[in-house]
Amino acid sequence: MDISDVLRSRRAALGLSQAELAKAAGVSLRQLARYEAGDQQPVLSAAVALADALGISMDQLAGKVNYDLDLSGEWWCAWQTWKDGAPRINTHPLEVHQRGEVLQLNAERAVPVAEAATAGEASCACGTTKPSSAGIAQPTPPCDPRAPCTSPSTSTAPMPGAAGSA
What homologous superfamily does CATH list for 3-61? Predict the structure, then answer.
């Protein structure tokens, strides 16, 4: 796959017209048409702008790699920590943003059960919390009863240095 193929297919996948892509990338419509037809290759600055506008890496634009698997979305993450010599599993919501080969991970810090109770949040035995919108405590799934859980009276904050901790 060459640059012209990548430009056409990615633009179509995003539902953009040539005019919309040209404007987003800061190139003329005429020049974009030349790139897509394979008549010319973009200079580096134009290629960078096109890759940014299409939400892909330069490697993808050049046709070197293909990322058909997009990991973007809301996920759950979990890690095992220890408190007072006892293992426990902390689960947290995780938001993933993928841009080409780069993943940006945004994980929330666990809220200690004592703080959750005073902040109007619900907590299940494994420590996942969710704001209570109607004043009714409801744990956030997934809650695996087979996994080691923390006692409701202990903190669920991850240990310093644990993945996803702020």
Answer: lambda repressor-like DNA-binding domains (1.10.260.40)
